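Hello again, I could really use a second opinion on something today. I've been staring at a protein lately and its backbone has me curious. Please have a think about how the structure follows from the sequence. I owe you a coffee for this, so here goes:
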Amino acid sequence: MIEAKSKAFRITASLALSVLALLYLVPVALILMNSLKKKLYLTADQAFNLPDSDSFAGLDNYTGGIAKTDFWSAVGYSVTVTVLSVGVIVLCCGMTAWYIARVKSKFTSLLYYMFVFSMVVPFQMVMFTMASITNRLHLDNPIGIAVMYLGFGAGLSVFVFVGFIRTVPISLEEAAMMDGASAWQVYFRVIFPVIRPTAITVAILNTMWIWNDYLLPQLTIGGRYNTIPVAVQGILSGTYGDRDLGAMMAVLAVAVVPIIAFYLVLQRYIINGVVAGAVKG
């Protein structure tokens, strides 16, 4: 009887989650569908209609959107910002988490809780002050913005890293030190290979956030170095003339392909890494 109820619950849960997954796919389907329509057919009452012989625009929206947004330049800036920022976050947060997990003191406890507290501070509270400081320190460029992303991404990243590192036996590090390894060698040759699954998880989560982020690039480097979200928003706001929603949908469709593919290939690391870093710790 209990087994039958458990089976029925699993089936019901699977159906409910499948329906929920399909609902999440609806916006993606709408983007793809409307990216193939002519601009005149992208009104509120026709947004859910499939393209027909009159509304079908072919690839005109794609070619027009790529030209209007200087898309390939935006891709270059997005890749540069994402790769640099994620690399800095993984490197700095991993070493910081190792220090916090291994050095037991009031200072490291305070430091850890400051990182945790930073996760609940809304970006809107600091964005104007941050934009001013970024300009004064000449960080308003694709390389300098990595420092900004490090500050906003460190909270979650350190939290996940610390939780996992605390489960790593300290005897591994002691054995390496007895063999004459320096602190740098202990971290990169002993600790980092062990925490690699968590590092991959942190990299994936931050990649999806940074690649899709609009507000921080717009405030700091927008206008000179447009990332993909900023370039797409330019079409909607009329920066490039009238609002060509068809072109915007087409560029969005192209822009989401890399990040979706990236997520699907590496999604198993997200669950494993988060569980290891948040539950075991």
User: Anything to note?
Assistant: Residues 102 and 166 are 8 Å apart (CA to CA). The mean pLDDT is 83. The chain has twelve helices and no strands.
